[in-house]
Each structure stands twice: as structure tokens, then as C-alpha cells.
Amino acid sequence: AISFAYRITEGYNQTYMENLSETHERLSDDEVEQQLSEVCNFFKEFRQELLSITGNVDFLTKDDGSPVTELDVKVETELKERFAVAYPHTAVFGEETGRYNVDHHHFWLIDPIDGTKSFVEGEPVFTNMAALIENGETRASVIYNPVRDDTYTAIKGTGTYKNGVKVQLDSVNPEPVFLLKKELFTDVRGVLGDVDVRFVNPPSGGGDGFTQILDGIVAARFQMHASGSAHDYAPGALLIYEAGGVILPIKQDSYTFETTSFIATHSDYAELLKGLVPRIRQFEF
0.85 cut: is pTM over it? Predict the structure, then answer.
């Protein structure tokens, strides 16, 4: 058995919450940019440590069957502690250290290692992700791929950027590929008919799938039969939307940062898929 030096206790979470100085004032544009930059730089600081142990790391299995490593908890804990000093009015909630509190006016959701299974197995598709939630909407987000050292960022209303260069999907000619869980291939093919696309089972972890749309490797990602939560999907959804893509809710009538059933797609396929959503909905859990 392994023990985590950074294991979080209920006492830690209670103390953390009590020390937050929450404000209901909207963050200024400068504050959002500063905090986003802080998160991006923080993720980069862990790059070498992540790469040095991927494929050769101890892990525990959580109740949902997914793995968690000491580094998952360490990344999340240290970002919380950094923000507690630098931005005490902005909470940080993560996958490993406690569910977010929607009573907070603004807070960051962090997935310290998205695709921990891939990280444990040495597959180069794990990422670090975070999203700033304000007034129930995603205002900023980042997906960082430490293997490629690629940083994808977005701030609502200002566009999506990859390594500082603006991403505009209307200038990207995507491959006719849809990321879709294998158990849904037959059902969704029956809905699409003879549309000339092929299906690929998505990578472990949502972050890499979203960036594949931004890079034109795939045209759409079907987020169905979800086992994750808001921190798994909110960062990527904003990135796609701000790049000119479309988010199509499946189970709900409208998208929120908590939506876990949707299609993220290049605009070239948006009208087609929008018309098929009512039929695709029947295959959701």
C-alpha cells in the first residue's frame, strides 16, 4: 500500500473554506488574465516532475474505479495554497480535494491530471485542466498538455489561443473523424446514415479530445455516457466555443458549466448534428 503525504482531510477542507474571503464583486478583466496566467505557469512548473514518472508511478484506486496518484493530490493542494495567499477571494476546488461550492461567486475548478489512467500507463494524452466559474458561467479556462508543452487558453469573449496564437476553427479544415465511445458506434452510425465520417474511441481523459478538435485532428467529440464531472468538461467546452465551435447539449435544452452530456463540434458539422440530437438523445444514460 502507498500513503499520500498530500492526502486531504475533512479538517483541511473545513479550514480552507473558513479562511476564504469571498467577495461578490465581479473579477476585473485584468484579474481574470492574472489568475489564468498564474494557473498556466503553475501547471508548467510541474511538467518535468510529471514527465519523469509517467508510466512508472504508484497509484490508488478510488471508489469509482479510477486511479489517483500522489501527484494528482499534490498539484491540486499546492494550487489551492498558492491562491489562498495570492487571491484569497477566489476559491479553488478540484477533483481530488473536495467538490465545489456553488455558493461562491467565482471559483476555479481544477483537474490536476486529466486522464490519470493514461498518465499511469505512460500514454501521452494526459493533461492539466482548469476553468474559472463566475456567476454560474465559465469565464476562463486552460488545458495544458505537458508532453507536447502546448497550452490552450480562453477567456470568454476574447477567443481561444494555443501557445499565444489565436485559434479560429473556421480556418481549420478538420478530419472527418468523430470521437465517440465504442459502445455507441453502431447506434450513432444508424442515426448518421451515410454521412462520410469515421468514429474513433476517445482517449482516456477529456482534455486531449477537446484539443484534437482545436488542432483539426477530429471534427467532433461526443460527450456521452459520462463518468466525470464539471471539471472534466467545462474547460474544453469554453475553448471550443471561443474558437468558433459549437456546443450542442444532448440531455438538456441548454448548456451550463455543469453539463456532462453534449457534442463539441467544428462549425462545419454543427447544423447536421444539431438536427440529429433528438435522435441521439435516446442512447444516453
Answer: yes
